[in-house]
Amino acid sequence: RSRRKRSRRELLKTHFGFDSFRPNQEEIIESVLAGEHTLAIMPTGGGKSLCFQLPALALEGTAIVISPLIALMKDQVDALNANGIMASYYNSSQPSEAQEEVLNNLMIGQLQLLYVAPESLWNLTNYFQKTEISLIAVDEAHCISAWGHDFRPAYTQLSRLQDEFPQTPIIALTATADRATQDDIMKQLRIENGKRFVSSFDRPNLYMEVRPGQQRIQQVLQFLKDKENQSGIIYCLSRKSTEKVAEKLVAKGYKAKAYHAGIEAEERSRIQEDFVNDRIPIIVATIAFGMGIDKSNVRWVIHYNMPKNIEGYYQEIGRSGRDGLPAHGLMFYSFADVVQLRKFATGTATEAFQLAKLERMQQFAEALSCRRKALLNYFGEHVIQDCGNCDICKMPPKYFDGTVIAQKICSA
Ligand code: ADP
Ligand code: MG
């Protein structure tokens, strides 16, 4: 057994170039290699990919990796190939010759990992039946749950995995799932009997602050005064407001750009690249911006409006301070935001879930206790101590002291 352990470290070193595992990686890898179904909850950047990539190398056969975004697939496959690992992806946007080549390689056992979009998966079951499948990884697994914040219908079909691959270990991974979403993921994938690993979500270098949303633009300008040349993201609720806010910043001499799904794809990737390469420091965006962007020196994130749920909020502020240096998450909150968000949720198929999540978000914004404690507890981590690095800890609100008045009344 100790020899096998050593060989895992060797795989880590020779294929990935790392000397040690990150927290929970080794335990998760052991679980997968033991043939257990596994749920891994780990913050963004925590190193989830390795938890299925390394077992894929250690086991015979091909690992199927289900991933929701073609861009994410391509990045991971490129990185694996650069490390000499035989990996490909398959999706509907590929030319058919490329698809055929991938399937050929699969059939002759030349693939250690195959990334597949959930929509394409069921077209390939015939091929999978003729090959050895080592494991199935469901990345961004929160997409399967209506309780999650990024529900995708194609993911619901994944409950059929157990019928197609009854002998194959499934590992589901995500960065953002509260306890109810975790349970729901396991239920839907039918892996309730599996192991669950929840890594700490704490990002101690992130300062969290919530402010009333009056005169936001003035507050933003004030906030930016001592942040010259720092990179940051401002999230707005609507496309229109991203443009309005960006315009106002540009008028004050800031290099800021609006980013939303209505902008042409080519222009969008140009903006993204300019941001990553420090040519544009400030992006004013809808939540369309950020997924899959690997930029370590984002110093602040502003929520111009209250986000619609805590998962999104934490994911978005988590895009700052990835280098471990201090970063600032500032959120504006007003009742008008709540009204607007309620309107968005009303009439949708998942209205009740969304309204429940919105209410938790509002409670978070209005709370007068340590922000980090509230957040970590929300994600199922038991925390008792105040963090000392949020607005509430740094500037305790002055409570209205009813006891003094009561004493005065009684003694009168
Ligand atoms: P996640 O999917 O959890 O957001 P990734 O799997 O993309 O995170 O990993 C984030 C970064 O951490 C990648 O650059 C990856 O190479 C790196 N990483 C992962 N595991 C380790 C490790 N054990 N040691 C050092 N770096 C690691
Ligand atoms: Mg990932």
TrEMBL record:
Its EC number is 5.6.2.4. Keywords: ATP-binding, DNA damage, DNA recombination, DNA repair, DNA-binding, Helicase, Hydrolase, Isomerase, Metal-binding, Nucleotide-binding, Zinc. One of its GO terms (biological process) is DNA recombination. Its cofactor is Mg(2+); Zn(2+). One of its GO terms (cellular component) is cytoplasm. GO terms for molecular function: 3'-5' DNA helicase activity; ATP binding; DNA binding; four-way junction helicase activity; hydrolase activity; metal ion binding. It is an enzyme of class 5 (isomerase). It comes from the Bacteria. Residues 216-369 form the Helicase C-terminal domain. It catalyses: Couples ATP hydrolysis with the unwinding of duplex DNA by translocating in the 3'-5' direction. Residues 29-195 form the Helicase ATP-binding domain. Belongs to the helicase family. RecQ subfamily. This is DNA helicase RecQ. The chain holds residues 22 to 433 of 714 of the full protein.
